[in-house]
Amino acid sequence: MAKIYLVEGPVGSGKSTFAERLSLQTKAPHMDLDSWMVSLFGPDRPSSGVIEWYLERKERCIEQIWDVAKKILNVNCNVILELGLIQRSSRHSMYARVRESGHELLVYVLDAPRDLRRERVRQRNLEKGTTFSMEVPDEVFEIASNMWEEPDDVECREQNIEFVKTLPANKGL
Question: Which residues in 112-153 belong to E strands, given as ranges?
Fold first, then answer.
């Protein structure tokens, strides 16, 4: 049976880079929330109130990504999901969906020191390289970082979670 790889962590922790490498290793498609958000809603992104605007649309994107993921899984192909589930409650909702689907789940939780993550995001904003989806101003970085809830003991016992500490770019992941 096909497997779901869920890649989560705070902003700037290296999730997209990790997921792209995992996609090459496993030959599984990588679907990330930010790419969908930019494609579907990017032209409508306001200059202020970005957090509220984003949260209103996030759930709609996750629903659509999950529908596509189920179709991929149903043809016995693994899938990599990067959904920005920064709060435990949203991860628990996804865990329930996966349980209901009957597929195996492996969760990768990436993290790095906040200063390193902030620098990565600033650099990504400037370079607009392969993992760039949208501009993340410092203010949004701080809000999103403050919202991150690391898996607790219960979540770790109930799920197959692998923690990945990321390093500065010149030292790899």
Answer: none
Q: Are 12 and 121 in contact (CB under 8 A)?
A: yes
Q: How far apart are CA 63 and CA 143, in angstroms?
A: 24
- Parse the chain into domains and list their residue ranges: 3-171
Residue type, 98: V
Measure the CA–CA gap between 92 and 168, rounded to whole angstroms.
Answer: 30
Instruction: Please name the residue that has the structure tokens 């979670």.
Output: 161
Tokens 């202020």 map to which residue? 48
DSSP-derived pairing of the beta strands 161-165 and 104-111: parallel
Q: Kindly report, residue by residue over 3-29, the tens digit of the pLDDT.
A: 999 999 999 999 999 999 999 999 999
C-alpha span between 170 and 165 (Å, rounded): 14
Q: Where are the beta strands (DSSP E) in the chain?
A: 3-8, 30-32, 79-82, 104-111, 161-165
Is residue 114's pLDDT more than 80?
Answer: yes
Phi, psi of 31 (to 5 degrees): -115, 120
Total number of residues shown for the chain: 173
Q: Is the domain defined by 3-171 classed in CATH 3.30.1520.10?
A: no
Rounded CA-CA distance 107/89 in Å is 15
* Residue 169 to residue 173: CA distance in whole angstroms: 8
